[in-house]
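Onboarding guide, step 5: your first structure request.
Type a short instruction followed by the sequence, for example:

Predict the 3D structure of this protein.
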Amino acid sequence: MKNFIFTALTCLTVCSAFGAPTVAAYYESWWKPDANENAFTLKKLDPHLLSDLYLAFAAFDSDYNIHPIDFKDPEKLYPDLQALKARSDGSLKLFLSIGGAHFNDPQDPYGMGAKTYRLFSKMAADPIARKVFIDSAISYAEKYGFDGIDIDWEFPGVANLGGADVDFENLISLLQEFRNTLFNKSSSLLLSICLPATVPEGVWPLFRTHPQLFYRWAAVCAHFCDRITLMSYNYHTPLGSSIVTGANAPLHRDTLPTSTLFVAESVENYLKNGLEAAKILLGIPLYGWKYANVSSLSSNSAGPGKPFRGKVSTNPLISNAQIENVLQDPRWNSGFDPLTSTAYGFNLKESEWISFDTPETISLKAQYALKKGLKGVIFWAVNLESNALEGVQAAKGEFDGNN
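The system replies with structure tokens like these:
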């Protein structure tokens, strides 16, 4: 495995891509707007606001053929996507994202992952299955008018998510064969993959002890792709073993000065190990995390780093649109944390706390993307903002102002 990685690295060539920075976003296919007149809908979306829109998600079964998660999507959702593209005069690119966190999670609360979490690993290990998957993905994307395919495997090599050590070598084979097939078919489809902000827990031990090897492997994967989504969020959540509140997507540093869990560190780890800046779409969250039973909160000290003893519900993720409504409650206050360049909200009476991004902190992330020469930014997810899309507008404003 180690020898394969270093052999593959010798084949990595460096190229650069220039042009206006990309403002991309994912759209959750299962999302349903509420009755609020300010709620986001595809029909209200300015078609010129985004460069690219990624539909999350499509799936595949044990036959390795692509299908929609909801079998009504081709007749109900896809026409809205094509209408949006038409309103953009063809400038908007549509990507089909395949997989996702739930697809790869045996504990998926919606039940899909228990049946599908091993499929990426099995498919990537079998040359025949890889060909079926690749041919099906290309055929499906072209049939429904998509311009690109995004592979969201979360995460290769993680055993409790259906992975194995050989996944790393096999994913390179999959991407290389995907690229060759696109070339042989003279297809104009673009190819993308999602990469984590840090080395995932549970992967090959050598990648944990020598993380530079993981990032070099990722650079080889990216070599066969037109762009990558860097999932630079969820650095801290109320889930898992954390005992103090933390910023969802800290920019230049974390609350603790010794912590490496922040956006700029993630980007640097990839860049210094060979991944081209011009291929990186910097992930920006349009949601926050809500913490419960937070102690030591006060009006003068309410930033991240406070002890807490639980989450507010089974799903403590809260959309930016919901956060807007929460902060209208007079019991809630908000602030800016200069260390992490993120925003937070707090309710002293209920001992609750939220970490999130605002248009102002998103502007800082867009400025950082420009400074580092990244391809652009990509939001998870556009439907999580109100219809004004102030966060997306902030990033676009930074990019437009730089031209």
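Each response can be followed by summary notes, for example: The two ends are 44 Å apart (CA to CA).
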